[in-house]
Write a structure and sequence with these properties.
Elements lengths: L2 E5 L2 H5 L1 H16 L3 E5 L12 E4 L8 H11 L4 E2 L2 H8 L1 H10 L7 E5 L5 H11 L3 E4 L9 E4 L2 H11 L5 E6 L5 E8 L2 E9 L8 E4 L2 E4 L1 E4 L7 H14 L3 E9 L2 E9 L14 H11 L1 H14 L19 H6 L10
Parallel strand pairs: 1-2, 1-3, 3-4
Antiparallel strand pairs: 5-8, 6-7, 6-8, 9-10, 9-14, 10-13, 11-12, 14-15
Length: about 350
């Protein structure tokens, strides 16, 4: 009998939807013959005694979830989300560079440092990428610090605010659509698919409108009703990050698909599984018996090796990448990427 730990915190349990989802996950684990217990931050010392860890709290390299993930990695315990996926997806530049490296279709994108942005370069961005543009602060999540701008003055104003939080910002062409595909993948395989219906008041799946939070509607879609190219692109985008659990956001415009984000720790409580009743079964089976086990062993060896957790290609390795063309030309730009 194997023991699954489900890492949660107060925020996880403050939502009835999330609470229902983690209880369902526990029940599925027990129906498969495993024991399952909720692991709170104060219980982190229990992690070495687990057989697998499933993190269901907001992940970020600066909070306790990352410590929990690294601890599991160090002891060779299969974990979702793994530390590498957390690091990559928490930094949009890191994430987009991984997509670029694998030639994943995405909006035209530029990465800018503060000293590179002035009125002239702002005007040039509109000429190159069109109007409007989307600006993102790299550490953003839940659509926070993602804004649409339609003029150089707006761009400079928003960028100035974002540069107070980061040395870099992301500038992308705007892809208009009334919904995003969300493709859930695990170990490179389809887990679920749904549509996130964008609220008419905004262009994001979540936004503050007149002081009120507006959320998108979630519409689960059976696999046989999802365009095969959407599933294919979702799987390819997930594989560009790793072999864990990801939620890939995809927009369709003029017959072309674009990956907007790859999210670690994707939502599993919004009705995504309505047509995928085996969703938690697949996640738990992967953690307990799938490739996650051998992957965890490989990570454990790296953790105990002479080069530390990541070896020569870990966080801190320099990458000369700024845009798709720069990626191909290997232009000299300094950024910390998990290649």
């Amino acid at each position: 009998m194997s023991k699954l730990g489900i890492f949660v915190n107060r925020q996880t349990l403050s939502s009835s939807e999330q609470l229902t989802a983690v209880v369902k996950c526990r029940d599925v684990a027990e129906s498969l013959g495993h024991t399952a217990e909720f692991i709170f931050p104060v219980d982190i010392k229990k992690i070495p005694k687990l057989d697998a860890l499933f993190i269901r709290a907001n992940t970020d390299p600066m909070n306790i979830t990352y410590v929990a993930s690294r601890m599991a990695e160090m002891y060779g315990i299969p974990v979702i989300d793994d530390p590498s996926s957390i690091r990559i997806c928490a930094d949009k530049i890191n994430m987009y560079m991984h997509l670029m490296k694998k030639n994943i279709s995405m909006p035209r994108t530029r990465f800018l440092k503060k000293k590179e942005l002035d009125e002239s370069s702002a005007a040039q961005l509109f000429e190159e990428l069109g109007t409007p543009l989307v600006l993102k602060e790299p550490s953003t999540s839940f659509s926070v610090r993602v804004e649409k701008v339609s003029s150089s003055d707006e761009l400079l104003k928003v960028a100035k605010r974002f540069f107070k939080l980061s040395d870099w910002i992301v500038v992308q062409e705007y892809i208009e659509s009334r919904f995003d595909w969300r493709v859930g993948v695990i170990n490179g395989q389809l887990l679920y698919a749904c549509r996130y219906i964008i609220p008419s008041e905004t262009f994001k799946i979540q936004a503050s409108v007149n002081g009120h939070i507006v959320y998108c509607d979630v519409e689960s879609v059976p696999a046989d009703q999802v365009p095969p190219e959407v599933i294919k692109l979702g799987r390819e985008a997930g594989n560009a990050i790793g072999n864990g659990l990801y939620g890939v956001d995809i927009k369709e415009s003029n017959g072309k698909l674009y990956v907007i984000e790859v999210n670690d720790n994707p939502s599993l409580e919004g009705g995504e599984d309505a047509h995928y009743p085996d969703m938690f079964h697949k996640i738990i089976s992967y953690l307990m018996t799938g490739d996650a086990c051998s992957y965890a062993g490989d990570l454990s060896e790296k953790a105990l090796g002479p080069h530390g957790f990541e070896g020569e290609y870990g966080l801190g390795a320099a990458a000369g990448i700024c845009s798709q063309s720069a990626l191909e030309e290997k232009a000299a730009y300094s950024y910390k990427i998990d290649f």
